[in-house]
Design brief:
Elements (H helix, E strand, L loop, with lengths): L1 E9 L4 H7 L8 E9 L6 H11 L6 H9 L6 H6 L2 E5 L8 H6 L10 E6 L2 E3 L4 H5 L5 E5 L14 E5 L6 E5 L14 E5 H6 L25 H4 L5 H12 L5 H4 L1 E5 L8 E3 L12 H14 L4
Parallel strand pairs: 1-2, 1-4, 2-3, 8-10
Antiparallel strand pairs: 4-9, 5-11, 6-7, 8-9
Length: 300
């Protein structure tokens, strides 16, 4: 039996996320295990009050309405577990792939074929995510390594390919025109077991190219975009791992995307610091991509 592991960073606690991830269709001959590695509890005072203004908002803005869908109600630990998740509390060190590192202190990743590491402020749009991730018929976006360009060499032309299962890293979305296009966000990403095998100590390096990143152990309040801006550096560290670990950009060649729009695919809209309505980092292009995707799905 093949197995998929889902590890979510428990911080924002979108009720929509935990409920709808648990409703994903399980592919034939596969099993799925769900773990929430939390850095604060859903019942924490800060967790609840940080989203109350969204729940109480009266707005015609479709972005705010999507946030209201995400945080329709204040979810509890018991409800998360009832949706099929195993709940763990760990120190609030660093976000993104750190939740996998903490999970792997207790469990063995080698029991799984595919690992999804995800934030819990993502709006889930489909129940066919895992069916399509393992299907040969799914269309994915593949970088053409020979086309590498840009001031810092972080851009690649892409081609649409069938999912042949030969990828090792599968990210949600990629926008080629962005100067740092090839920089994984770590917000909604799939990793094959074989890629984890290549990581030093089989864990993600959450430093800034060897330099430590400030932790928030004991803190339970969100500090916005700038407050944890340094945590973004680990994405560059992982990007360099993909560039440098195997010769001739082999790990780049084995990377794929579910869409050609950053943060947006037909499966998932990635939140930014807790909210879909945040687009400071990506600007109006993100809003346009999001609206187009929702129109295609007849959501708006």
């Amino acid at each position: 039996m093949n197995k998929i592991l889902v590890v979510a960073t428990g911080w924002h606690f979108s009720s929509h996320f935990y409920e709808n991830m648990g409703k994903q269709i399980v592919p034939e001959s596969w099993e799925i295990d769900y773990f929430c590695v939390a850095h604060r509890s859903p019942e924490n005072e800060n967790t609840i009050k940080e989203k109350d203004h969204i729940r109480n908002a009266d707005s015609n803005n479709f972005l705010i309405q999507l946030d209201q869908m995400m945080y329709e109600y204040s979810i509890t630990t018991k409800q998360i577990e009832e949706f099929g998740w195993e709940f763990m509390i760990e120190d609030n060190t660093i976000g993104d792939m750190e939740c996998f590192n903490q999970w792997s202190d207790t469990y063995d990743y080698r029991d799984y074929d595919i690992i999804l590491v995800t934030h819990d402020d993502n709006l889930i749009l489909s129940d066919e995510l895992f069916v399509d991730v393992v299907s040969n018929n799914t269309k994915l976006y593949k970088p053409l390594v020979e086309s590498r360009y840009g001031v810092s060499g972080h851009q690649f032309n892409v081609e649409i390919v069938n999912n042949d299962g030969k990828w090792l890293f599968l990210d949600n979305g990629y926008t080629q025109s962005i100067s740092k296009a090839f920089e994984p966000r770590g917000s909604f990403s799939f990793y094959k077991k074989e890629l984890i095998d290549l990581l030093p100590n089989n864990k993600f390096d959450m430093s800034d190219r060897g330099k430590p990143i400030l932790t928030r152990i004991g803190e339970t309040n969100s500090v916005g975009y700038d407050g944890i801006g340094g945590w973004n550096s680990a994405a560059g560290t992982f990007r360099d791992f993909l560039y440098e670990t195997l010769p001739e950009l082999e790990l780049v060649e084995k990377s794929r995307w579910l869409s050609n729009t950053k943060r947006v695919s037909k499966y998932c809209i990635e939140g930014e610091r807790g909210f879909v309505s945040n687009f400071r980092a990506d600007g109006i292009q993100y809003v346009n991509d999001l609206k187009k995707q929702l129109e295609n799905l007849e959501w708006i």
